[in-house]
Each structure stands twice: as structure tokens, then as C-alpha cells.
Amino acid sequence: MSSFVRGNRDLIKAMNRSLVLNTLRREDVLSRTQLTEKSGLSVGTVSQIITELLSRQWIIEIGEGDYTGGRRQTLIRLNPDAGSAIGLKLMENRVACAVTNIAGKTLYYRDYAYSADANPQAICDKLYEIVQDALNSITAQHGRLLGIGIGVAGVIDAPRGVVHYSPYFGWRDVSLAQMLQDKLAVPVYIENDVNTLTISEQLFGAGRHQQNYIVATIGRGIGMGIVINHQLFRGSKGGGGELGHITVMQDGPQCSCGKRGCLEAVASDPAVVQYVQERLPGNAKALNTLGNILAAAQAGNPVCREALARSGEYFGIALSTMINVLNPSLCILSGEGVTAGEFRLNPMREALKKHTFNDLLDSTEFVVEPADDRMWARGAASLVISKVFESPLAEAQITSL
Ligand SMILES: [Zn+2]
Questions:
Q1: Which of 1, 166, 207, 391 is the most exposed place for a label (fewest CB within 10 A)?
Q2: Ligand 1 centroid distance, CA of 323 (Å)
Q3: What global pTM score does this model have?
Q4: What is the DSSP string of 252-319?
Q5: How far does residue 260's CA lie from ligand 1's centre (Å)?
Q6: 228 lies in a domain?
């Protein structure tokens, strides 16, 4: 057999295996017959792949389903403990760390504060220490460690593992994934933090059955993850989806990116705090967080209500533009800022109705999914798990068992 033919056969096998794994991921539990129907593969191919995946413990049999044609069929599902992943959400002065299984269940969580030393090597050393703690929590029953995922705000060149630009640390072209991988014997991946949440929604959440959807986050910053035809859209340098930095107010407030009038400078949580503090300088101490402002709004404070409403309105205007451009079937609203609830979300909905073209809004479903540090860290871990379901990497990982 020529190496070309063998190479092609290996590739087809890997693609079929990936198709089976992804079908099981989307559908949870299937019989062999259902798996054959849903995957479109032949009975023989499915049978061969199942035998192989069972022997390598990527899938498990879980009892029997209904009678079909006179005999019971054994049901199959992914083995949630086929492997584990460590997720690190890197923030300005904190790191949140989670260990999950391949079903996205969090097995361990811890967060760490560190002093603001933006030196890449110092942060890499800190991450290494945090990973050592997490490794101590992983027992044999959690399966092999598949890798480490890092989520960080900014423009991330994910395929190369490079932080192209980080607004928090002022980094330009820092190969953080490689730096950490050099200290550890497992693969390290890095991705924009909102993209990691988007991947986690695609693997385990509301995005599982959606072809085109967006995840818009509001909180400390404002960001967006975009999935087009089931694929995360990163843009040419990883900068796709910078929703927070579209201009919504000419000559508006100064943004952390250096421009003026960005959505983030007008509508993020710090922008809401700033808006309130400028108008109520006497209450600067009491109204210094979104939580305090929300409580004051609930108690009837008109300035706090207005600040949240204004933030929601600008967020809605920006989202309507995204819906006009992308026509997604689903928009997942996430980040810690959605906890401001109807004070922010009602004005957002009104702005969406006012500014979305024709009837495009009718075909967009909205789901509110607050993300705290634990969710962000889980998102970073899902970056690793997503590699299992990408066919060439799944091949590399399965054969290396
Ligand atoms: Zn900006």
C-alpha cells in the first residue's frame, strides 16, 4: 500500500471517529442503530469505531434501551471520566482555576489573588504553581490530564498560542502557552476568554445544536464570541468579536484601549460605577461596585436606575448591529454584568426592538447565562476538551493513549 493511500485511509478513519464522538457529544445517549442513522456512516464502520473507542475507554455502555425489532439494544455514551482538563482564567490581579471532566463537570475549583506584576515570566511562574495545586486534586479515577487551557482578555492568536495584545498586562506578542508548556509535560492552549465561554456553550450548553450563534458578555469588559456554521470565528488575527471597542459615542469617555466612546467605556460595569460616582460624589464609597449600585437601584435610587438603563440601552444598540450583520439564531447573554437583571436587560430589549432590522429579532432566541469566575475557568478548561472533538487532534490524543 502506498503511503498516500494509507495516509488517506488514516485520515478518513480519524474523521469518522470524530463524527462518532461528536454525534455522541450532541445526543448524549444513543443505541448503535441510532448512532448509525445520526452519523450517516455504515453499520460496519460504526461497529468498528465503537469497538475501538470502548477498548480505549472514550465511550461506555450504559444498560439497554427500548426494544427495537425484537431485541434490546445496548446504549452508548461518552465516558465523562475519559480525561480531565485544567482551566485557568487569567485576570488583572486574580487567576481562577478549575479542573473538569470531559463532560464539562467541575471537579475542583480555586481562585488566587496575586500582586500586579505584569512580567510574563512572573505570571507564567504563578500559573505553574497554581497548576501544581490543581494536579494534586486529580486522582486516577478522573482519567488522564488532556491539557491546560488559558482564557485571557485581548487579541489572542490561538493557533500559535500567542497573546497578540493584552489590554490588562500591556503585552504584545507574548508566547504564554509555550512558556507554560515548557515547564509542564502536557499541551497548553490559550484563547480569548469570551471565546472560551463560547466553546463551552458549544460543547455543553445552549449552543450545542446551533449552527450560527453569538455569546455577548458584559461585566468588567464587553466582548463577543461568534460561531458561524458550527465553527468559532476568530478573524484573521484572533481579534474578531471585539464588540466592546466599537464606537457608540463620538468623543465619549476614554476607553482602556486608548480610544474614546467605545461601548465598553460607556456600558461596562466600571462605566456604570463611574457614571454614578460623577453624579453622586457624596456616595462614592457606598456606590463603588455594580452590586451596590444594583441594591440602590432596587431601593429606588433614580441615578443608579438611570446608569443601569443607559448601559443596557447602549449594549442593546450594539447588539442590534451584530444581529443585523450576522442574523444568529441564538444570542447568549453572559458575563457577571447580566446579574443586574431587568434594570439593565429591559432597556437592552427595548433598544433591540428599536434598532434591529425588519423582523430579524423574531428569529433570534435570547438566553441569559451569568458567568462568574468559576464559569470562566470552566470555559478555559473546555478549550482543552474541544481539542478531543477536532478530528486531527483527537487522532493524536487517541493514538497516544
Ligand atoms: Zn476601546
A1: 1
A2: 21
A3: 0.90
A4: -SBPTTS-BSBHHHHHSHHHHHHHHHHH-GGGTTTT-SHHHHHHHHHTT-HHHHHHHHHHHHHHHHHH
A5: 7
A6: yes
